[in-house]
TrEMBL record:
Domain (CBS): residue spans on this chain: 3-65
SUPFAM superfamilies, per the entry: CBS-domain pair
Keywords annotated in UniProt: CBS domain
Taxonomic path: Eukaryota, Viridiplantae, Streptophyta, Embryophyta, Tracheophyta
Name of the protein in its database record: CBS domain-containing protein
Domain of life where this protein originates: Eukaryota
Gene3D superfamilies per the UniProt record, alphabetical: CBS-domain (3.10.580.10)
Entry-linked Pfam families: CBS
Amino acid sequence: MVMTSSPECATMETTILDALHIMHDGKFLHLPVIDKDGGVAACLDVLQITHAAISMCYEWHYCNERDLTCCFYHLAKALFGIVL
């Protein structure tokens, strides 16, 4: 296993969408989260954070629970400005 000596990190204030941007742009599946003292508070997993982003679509009432395509559309639009 290869570890990065100075990985890119999120903070406790980083939004879900910003964390997904960081992970997408850096092409990595995990993102450490540091607290205000610089200690590691958590490690985000791309699957967990994608699930959280999809849940946000439901909370924003963009989609109903049965329309996953709608959620992916709004998620892509929020992340990348993609309009399909």
